[in-house]
Design brief:
Strand content: over 45%
Radius of gyration: 13 Å
Shape: globular
Helix content: under 10%
Largest sheet: 7 strands, mixed
Number of strands: 11
Number of helices: 0
Distance between the termini: 39 Å
Length: 124
């Protein structure tokens, strides 16, 4: 199983930016699609963005499209989530997750490896 560790969360004012990182170990990282999910207090976990093993394909939730960018550096075994124009409704714990195979997914149940999460808090 792959181990994933998120970092980069924090407290930011509305309109600001943060970059989250997801560092992987334990498996051949370049064989895995990776996604970011988030969960706000009292709400269900929701999909944010996903990237294919090569980085050629990406998928975004409508709520973040145009503001967030997912990317990866397979040489560093790391996936990034650049978050711009942050709003209070982006406040959540952000998790990265990995799945093998070719198909990109936005369904949490398809992902077998998860990180512990990093808190993002946006204040107005």
């Amino acid at each position: 199983q792959m181990q994933l560790v998120e970092s980069g969360g924090g407290l930011v004012q509305a309109g600001g930016s943060l970059r989250l990182s997801c560092a992987a170990s334990g498996r051949t990282f370049s064989n895995y699609n990776v996604a970011w999910f988030r969960q706000a207090p009292g709400k269900e976990r929701e999909f944010v963005a996903a990237i294919s093993w090569s980085g050629a394909r990406t998928l975004y939730a409508e709520s973040v499209k145009g503001r967030f960018t997912i990317s990866r550096d397979n040489a560093k075994n790391t996936v990034y989530l650049q978050m711009n124009s942050l709003a209070p409704e982006d406040t959540a714990v952000y998790y990265c997750a990995a799945k093998g195979g070719y198909t990109l997914s936005y369904t949490g149940a398809d992902f077998g490896s998860w990180g512990q999460g990093t808190q993002v808090t946006v204040f107005s």
